[in-house]
Amino acid sequence: MSPPHDHQHCIDTAIETAASLCAEQGMRFTPIRRRVLALVWGGHQPVGAYGILDALKAAYPRAAPPTVYRALDFLIGLGLIHRIESMNAYVGCTHPAERHSGQFLICSQCRAAVELDDPNIAQAVRRGAQRMGFEARHQMIEITGLCPDCRDAPQP
Ligand SMILES: [Zn+2]
Ligand SMILES: [Zn+2]
Ligand SMILES: [Zn+2]
After folding, report:
1. Closest ligand to Cα 78
2. Residues, beta carbon < 5 Å, ion ligand 3
3. Do both 106 and 82 map to the same domain?
4. Per-position DSSP letters for 19-63, written without gaps between them
5. For 119-149, how does the pLDDT look when each residue is reduced to its tens digit (9 = 90+)?
6. 14 C-alpha to center of ligand 1: Å?
7. Domain that holds residue 138
8. 79 in the Ramachandran plot: left (φ > 0), alpha (ψ -120 to 50) or beta?
9. Cβ atoms of residues 52 and 68 within 8 Å
10. Fewest CB within 10 angstroms: 75, 79, 98, 147, which?
11. How many Å apart are CA 146 and CA 102, to the nearest integer?
12. Which CATH number fits the domain that encloses residue 71?
């Protein structure tokens, strides 16, 4: 689901947005946080914490799991990345400045994850929960299937 594009541009945009969001909120965008964000944005496929740790070690040989998890928590807190529970992995958010609850279309073949982010769905879920006396606070809907590229690709 990621047609050939200048992915470096995706990474640069994500880093720029993150830097200005941190500045706005008075948070420090440390080199490690920046590096971890760039690694999460390595592609449009979600990446696991240990994959990030391995790559981080190239620049920070003493990086340990807590280093990565602290940076990931920070980025999630600012809405810069999302956690995909079903894959136990993380993916960059394309519009972190707006508050939104995620709906992800996840390709089971190439693992690309794309945000659907339909406010009507989020509202329908909230209403449905309300009818059952439940106060929904966080929702993340993960829909698996085939992305356009994989649908069109000849089956082996
Ligand atoms: Zn890209
Ligand atoms: Zn998002
Ligand atoms: Zn695919």
Report:
1. 2
2. 107, 109-110, 147, 150
3. no
4. HHHHHHTT----HHHHHHHHHHTTSSS-B-HHHHHHHHTTT-TT-
5. 899 999 999 999 999 998 888 899 999 999 9
6. 10
7. 102-152
8. left
9. yes
10. 98
11. 18
12. 1.10.10.10
* Residue range 31-64, pLDDT digits in tens: 999 999 999 999 999 999 999 999 999 999 999 9
Residues 34 and 11 in one domain: yes
Each residue's pLDDT tens digit, 87-118 = 999 999 988 877 777 799 999 999 999 999 88
- Residues 57 and 116 both lie in one domain: no
Asked whether the whole model's pTM tops 0.85, one would answer yes
Residues 69 and 18 occupy one common structural domain:
yes
Tell me, in angstroms, the distance from the centre of ligand 2 to residue 124's CA: 18
Distance 96 CA to ligand 2 centre (A): 6
92 C-alpha to ligand 2 centroid (Å): 7
- 85 domain residue, yes or no: yes
119 inside domain: yes
Q: How far apart are CA 46 and CA 19, in angstroms?
A: 21
Distance between Cα 155 and ligand 3 center (Å): 12
138 with 107, same domain: the answer is yes
Mark whether 84 and 57 lie in a shared domain: yes
